[in-house]
Structures are given as C-alpha cells and as structure tokens.
Amino acid sequence: MDCQNLISHHFYHPGLSQIKIAGVALPLRYGFRSSRISLNRKPDAFAVQGKDISLSHVKGNHNRDGESLSNSQAITKKGIVLRRKKGKERHFWQKRDSAGSGRKAHNLVRIISDLPHEKEAVYRALDKWTAWEVEFPLVAVVKALKKLKSRNQWLRVIQVAKWMLGKGQGTTMATYDTLLLAFDVDGRVDEAESLWNMILHTHTRSISKRLFSRMISLYDHHDMQDKIIEVFADMEELGVRPDEDTVRRIARAFGRLGLEEKQKLFLKRYQCKWKYIHFNGERVKVSRHTLEEDE
C-alpha cells in the first residue's frame, strides 16, 4: 500500500467534505526525510535541512536563557540557526565616480599644449572645453595642473590656474601654492605679491605654514631680504612657527641686512635645539648647543 492510500485508509470519513490534517507521523521505512510532514503547509513556510519551518516561528524567538534573539537569527528545536541575508545597501549621498577625470585632464593638457601663448586663445579654448559640462570639472582641472607642473610648463600652469580662479573655483591653499611657485619660477614677482596680499586680506587666520614658507622662498630667490622680514612679521603676529628651512632663510636675511642682534634673538627662539648628524654610519640626534661648544 502506497503512502496516499495509507493516509486515506486511516483518516477518511464519508461524512467529511474537507480533510484537514495538521500532521501525520510516518515510520522511517517509507523513506521520508522527516519524521513529520505537514499537509496544510503555509505559503510562507520554508525548509532548512529537511525541517519545515514557517516564518511565524522566526520572529520573537528566545533562547534557553530567556534572551530574545534578533530578527536576523532564530534557533529551531534541532539547533538550526536561520540567518536572514542582508540586502545590498545603497547610499544616495555618495559622491559621483570621478574615474573619467583623468581622461578629461589628459585631453585638457593636449588641447592647451598646441595653442599659442596668448591669454585670449587659451581662455577661449578652456571655455569651449567646459561648454557642455553640467558642473565645473574641478577634479580634472586640478589633475591637469599637476601634469603641467610635472612637465615644468609654468606658463600654462599660470594660465589655467588664473582661469580657474576667475571662475570662482579651486580657491584652496594648494592652488595658491602652485600658482605662487609658478610665479616664482617664471619671475613674476609683482603678480605674486598681488596674489599674496589678496590671500592675507581674505584668509588671514587660515593661511598655512606652507604658504608662508613659499612666499619667503620666493623673496629669497629674488634677493628681497626686507620682504622676507615683512612676511616673518606676519607669521609671528598670527602665531605660525616657521620650519627649519624657513628659519635658515629668515636668519640669513637678518644677517644680510646687518641686524646681528635680532638674528641671534631669532635663532635662540626659533632654531631647533636638536640636530641630526651622521656618526659611524648612523643618524644620531644631538644637541645643537653641544655642537656649538665643541666648535
């Protein structure tokens, strides 16, 4: 007798129009995987390792210690743990992919490299390059500036940076530093001073030590010792401590101007008390005062 006839033989009643069976215990010799099968299985039930478990048993379960389980875990009678698969999270606030900025920067460098040195021609090409952009391609322009800087094309760096600042974009300390360096190499001290005065009046309390060092280095390259002292006075007023290279430039400026007393006071206050020397093939940290006494 097969399984269906066995069930009908034991549970059939002629007066019943419907048969509702909660569960039937079957012996293992009939080849069933589970010792209990449900004939009125709900549509939201699912099987895990041969066990029929409905979703209603997952929610609100507790372990043996009475602690409630989270919605992502539940324990069956046989110790089977069900885990809910987490869906892929979507973050709509993530910034857009900028993978194409490198290609745009390369295209920009290629366009302006073939142009004459006239400012009008360069600006016209740059405006045409951004004509179909929804937003200003700031990342691409910054990458293009880095490429031009690595190629020592300082005139192009000045033109692109001034065009970008004229659009009200890229007003950062890194852009100012790149432009001041280009002015220094190209010998445009007057334009560098104009830019520096604008930075002082606009970003008084947020000027970095790097920009101060850049301006002092520019004046030192063009032998403008009095300007170095002026920039150092601004640093001291804003509480910006110079680095070691800037300290040497300022001390040299005091010496060239014949201000030996101020030079000594300056070195005593700002010169580092420690110095690294090479001794027996190793880099050793020693006191600068001890070295001066030995000399």
Automatic annotation (TrEMBL):
It comes from Eucalyptus globulus. PANTHER family: OS01G0757700 PROTEIN, OS07G0545900 PROTEIN. This is Pentatricopeptide repeat-containing protein. Keywords: Repeat. Transmembrane segments: none annotated. It comes from the Eukaryota. PPR repeats lie at residues 208-242.
